[in-house]
Design a protein that fits this description.
alpha/beta; Vancomycin permeability regulator SanA; Cell_Envelope_Assoc; 225 residues; 7 helices; 51% helix; Rossmann fold; 13% strand; DUF218
Length: 225
């Protein structure tokens, strides 16, 4: 009798696995479509992106010596060029500052200032722990309404889609120079598609980021001459 039951049990298990796989695939495809539909028509090349008051640079890896990784440096260089071209008036650098020995926003801010972006034009958000948090805090804590989101080109659709779903008037410009790091670029592309599922969950639940008092750094940066 057990020998006869085993094939049926295996079939049920196989059906369950296949069902879960299909549901997961559907969730992934649907999430990517939901995010990208919000970003459609709002992604630009560096040369033709419309001006906005603020560039939001999303954080990425910082090396133990405090220097930005190549991917993060490319984002910062792009934001600096936008500032130099008069496309933005201020730059909001948003990243992870969970541990005392790891500080993305300070590394990002220092990098820009060392490259002659005025210190009073670069504002740090120390609680941009992920894309959703960075976008939500830009609006709710820093009072940003219109923004150019800056990241790698594979990440920008998710970032802009998230920002727009949160009520920001956001456009995006993506860095392509880091594509020369072929394997990390491919890995980033894959991770970004999967991250769309979390982004949709955050947007549907309207998860609160780390909150606090209103920050006026961007207001000051836009008023500074």
């Amino acid at each position: 009798m057990p020998g006869r039951l085993l094939p049926s049990a295996m079939k049920l298990t196989l059906c369950a696995v296949l069902g879960l796989g299909s549901a997961g695939a559907a969730a992934l495809v649907g999430s990517v479509a939901y995010i990208r539909s919000a970003a459609a028509g709002h992604l630009y090349d560096e040369s033709d992106v419309p001006a906005a008051p603020v560039a939001l640079v999303l954080g990425a890896k910082v090396h133990p010596d405090g220097n930005p990784s190549a991917f993060l440096a490319a984002r910062l260089d792009l934001a600096r060029r936008l500032y130099d071209a008069g496309k933005v008036e201020a730059i909001l650098v948003s990243g992870d500052n969970l541990a005392p020995e790891y500080n993305e926003p300070d590394a990002m801010r220092r990098y820009l200032i060392e490259r002659e972006v005025p210190a009073d034009k670069v504002v740090a958000d120390y609680a941009g722990f992920d894309t959703y948090d960075s976008c939500a805090r830009a609006k709710r804590i820093f009072g940003v309404d219109r923004v150019i989101v800056v990241s790698q080109s594979y990440h920008v659709p998710r970032a802009v889609g998230t920002a727009r779903r949160l009520g920001l008037s956001a456009v995006g410009v993506g860095d392509e120079s880091a594509r020369r790091f072929a394997k990390p670029w491919r890995n980033g592309m894959v991770r970004d598609q999967v991250a769309c599922v979390k982004a949709v969950i955050d947007l549907v639940t309207r998860r609160d980021p780390v909150l606090g008092p209103r920050e006026y750094g961007i207001d000051g940066a836009l008023d500074a001459h």
